Structure formats: C-alpha cells, structure tokens
Amino acid sequence: MAKTPPRDAGTAAKRVFTVDLKVRFRDLDAMGHVNNAVFFTYFEEGRKTFFQTHFHGEKGVEFPFILAHAACDYQKPITLDDAVRLLMWVGEIRTKRFDFIYRIVDARQEGGVYASGRSVQVAFDYQDHCSVKIPEHVYRRLLLYQEEAPRGGRPPFPS
What is the 3-state secondary structure (H, E, C) of 122-156? Predict the structure, then answer.
C-alpha cells in the first residue's frame, strides 16, 4: 500500500500511503456527486488502513488515539464513475499528537485533485482518560511518512 509519491502528489513526504477508494451509490447526494461529509469517511478509511497495516497486533490496532481535529478543502466534485485514490502522509509530529495530511486524487491521473485535508490525532490512554506520549515505536514508524524537515532539521524523538 505505501508507495513513493507520484511526481504530481505535491508533497515533500518521504513515503506516501495510498488507499484506492470505491465510490458507492450511497455516497452520492441529490446533486449526483459525493456528499461533502463522505470525504471525512474517506479520510477515516485511510487512517484505519494505515493503522491496521502498521500497528496491528493480537488485540487489533495497538495504538490508541483520539481524533482531535479534521478539516477538508474541496477542489472539485467526485461522481459515481470516478476512480478515486487517497494519498496520505504525516505532517507535524509533537510529543502527544501528530497530523495526517490527505489528498484525494483521480486514480486515472486525468482529473487532478478532488480534495485535500488534515487531521490531528492524539495518543490517548482510555483507562486513565488522558493524553499520553506517542510511543517510540509509533513515532519511528510515523517518521517514515513524514514530510521533509524544514531547514534546521527535525528534533530527535520528543521527550
């Protein structure tokens, strides 16, 4: 699933995680295009697949987090006949949270970008009901998909 970013992906990420999405009839609204709320479901499918791929253990996904923020910028409508692909990578990583950056694109490379977005995930302890430090093994895996560091480099594992 993880691939090197296509030239037109518009990202400085080391690696881009890709998920091919199936547009379902139920995704459409009365105007015949994918409803705006469904774009967030597409982002969720990407997160789910990313976590299942990288952090799946005997008890399912072994990296508890909460979604603290999600945003989407719509560029053009998606219709039932469109071939859609989600590209995602990691933006900023902090001690307890990190960003996913999303781009929904035409999988046929014909129509460009449908939407772009961002979400903030916070590492969370569901037993104590509080945010916690991102585990080092998770941090290291996220770094593989992070955008290139700005000038001055990236700090080491956050403490």
Answer: EEEECCCCEECCCCHHHHHHHHCCEECCCCCCCCC
Distance, in Å, from the CA atom of 40 to the CA atom of 27, rounded to the nearest integer, reads: 11
Maximum CA pair distance of the chain? 50
Of the pLDDT bands very low, low, confident and very high (cuts 50, 70, 90), residue 41 is very high
**Mapping DSSP to helix (H, G, I), strand (E, B) and coil, where does residue 98 land?**
strand
Q: CA-to-CA distance for 44 and 46, rounded, in angstroms? A: 5
How far are the Cα atoms of 8, 98, 150 from residue 60, in angstroms, in the given order?
34, 21, 35
Instruction: Look up tokens 């547009």; give the residue.
Output: 23
Q: From the CB of residue 34, how many other CB atoms can be counted at a distance below 10 Å? A: 26
Beta bridge partners of 61: 56
State the pTM of this model: 0.84
Cβ(2)–Cβ(26) below 8 Å: no
Average pLDDT value for residue range 122-149: 92
- Which domains can be identified in the chain, with CATH numbers? 2-143 (3.10.129.10)
How many CB atoms neighbour CB 42 within 10 A? 23
Judged by DSSP in three states, 50 sits in helix
Please give the Cα distance from 111 to 81 (Å, whole number): 12
